[in-house]
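Researcher: I'm preparing a figure for a lab meeting and need a structural model of a single chain. I don't have an experimental structure, so a prediction will have to do for now. The sequence is pasted below. Please return the structure as tokens so I can convert it later.
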Amino acid sequence: MDQDIFSEIIWNFYSVNARLFPWRHVADPYKVFVSEIMLQQTQTKRVNEKFDVFIRKFPTFKFLSAAAFSDVLLYWSGLGYNRRALFLYNAAKIIVDRYDSILPNDEKILITLPGIGKATAASICAFAFNQPAVFIETNIRAVFLHHFFPLQDAIDDRQILPLIETTLDYKRPRDWYYALMDYGVHLKKTVSNPSRKSKHHTKQSKFEGSDRQIRGEALRLLLEYKQFSLEALFERVSHYTDNLNRFNAIIDSLVKDGLVQIDQLNRIMIVAE
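Model: Understood. Here is the structure written out token by token.
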């Protein structure tokens, strides 16, 4: 596809259909950083419902790093994949301690922070600092699959990334990526989901009855009641599973992820920071 025509399609759509979110067009890199962690594996609608409340409670890296982790997890509740709350919390501590509370504008440094992969580091540079970093996410992928691979399947991201780089607007990278993502959302609603053409496309597993649901419920109970014996907690979540081995494996995963701790009396609680 002709790149000038492609750019015109994207910009024309964005000029009248741009979505508004509280983490867009902000001068505070902290807000961008928080939003990018929240948006990993979570729909914008859910993040939009939680973002302002979280920012009011923890308005800076310093406030976030000085908070009790249980408070952070409480305000994260509802976003899922709770390990990201710990990544965010620990990253804030590093940014305060090592970088004087200033978010680094270097992908190589960002990627060393907890929970930050290559794509997230690049997206932070693009949105927080308007740098022409190259990255791919689900909606951007959908746009390029639709326009550049209309008759092909099993497309690898390695085939798409060079196109993202060559079509990137180096003068307005931040807005260009906003435009791509908004157009990708539009495509998913109006045409057969282009993401199915991707080699990396997978259906998200059902939440009901999943380990994710049980993990979330266990954490919710611990946030509300502070601690349980392992036996009592198993009884409280037994309506999700009566398989003790499965329950123990889920608890082990929470301990391994650093979200909960178990004392010598077999009492379980949120980690103390």
